[in-house]
Amino acid sequence: MRFLSPPLPIAVIALFLATGPLVMAAPVASLAPVQFVFTGFEKQAGQVMAQLTCAEKPGDQGRSVSAQADVRGPQVLIRFADQRVGQVCTMRAYRDVNGNQQLDLGTFGIPKEPYAFSNNAKAQLGPPKPEATRFVVQQGQNSQTITIK
């Protein structure tokens, strides 16, 4: 009597079914938190409104995430959890002193409320250049201390 082995496709299917969840699992992107410690508060009132925008590479549209925190002391911490490592990000923030949920502007569009950008980039005759505010999300904790004025 002759012993018949299963055809190759059946053996492959059996192997696939036995290891399916392991073979089909997609690689998980590495994530890391990004946080900003805002300083420069003389009065403990109002809120810090921050927006983090991250993209795969500079110049891409990216996606934005907003957060806010009450000013109740000399420092305010805003944390953006689960940002993909390797993304290029920028942050802009302002202190909403009067509680109207918007940055108040004066003559010629000059902000009346304190504001700040990532990397403590300075605004001169308009917002800072994008390359001055960019940073790359690294593995581990990503933290910047920002003076809001």
Question: For the report, how would you describe the main beta sheet?
Answer: 5 strands, antiparallel
**Helicity level, as a percent range?**
10-25%
Structural class: mainly beta
Gyration radius, rounded: 25 Å
Shape: globular
Mean pLDDT: 86
Span of the ends, CA to CA? 90 Å
Topology as a string of helices (H) and strands (E)? HEEEEEEHEE
Can you count the helices?
Answer: 2
| Model regions low in confidence, pLDDT < 50 over at least 5 residues | 11-26
Number of strands: 8
Q: How much of the residues is beta strand, in percent?
A: 35-45%
Give your account of this protein's structure.
The protein is mostly beta strands and 149 residues long. The strands form 2 sheets. Strands 2, 3, 5, 6 and 7 form a 5-stranded antiparallel sheet that branches. A hairpin with a 7-residue loop joins strand 2 and strand 3. About 11% of the residues have low confidence.
Q: What's a concise summary of this model?
A:
The chain has helices at 8-24, 130-133; strands spanning 31-39, 47-55, 63-70, 75-84, 88-96, 115-117, 135-136, 142-147. With 149 residues, the chain is mainly β.
Keywords:
mainly beta, 149 residues, 2 helices, 8 strands, 3-stranded mixed β-sheet, 5-stranded antiparallel β-sheet
SSE layout and pairings?
Blueprint: H1 8-24, E1 31-39, E2 47-55, E3 63-70, E4 75-84, E5 88-96, E6 115-117, H2 130-133, E7 135-136, E8 142-147
Parallel strand pairs: 1-8
Antiparallel strand pairs: 1-4, 2-3, 2-5, 5-6, 5-7
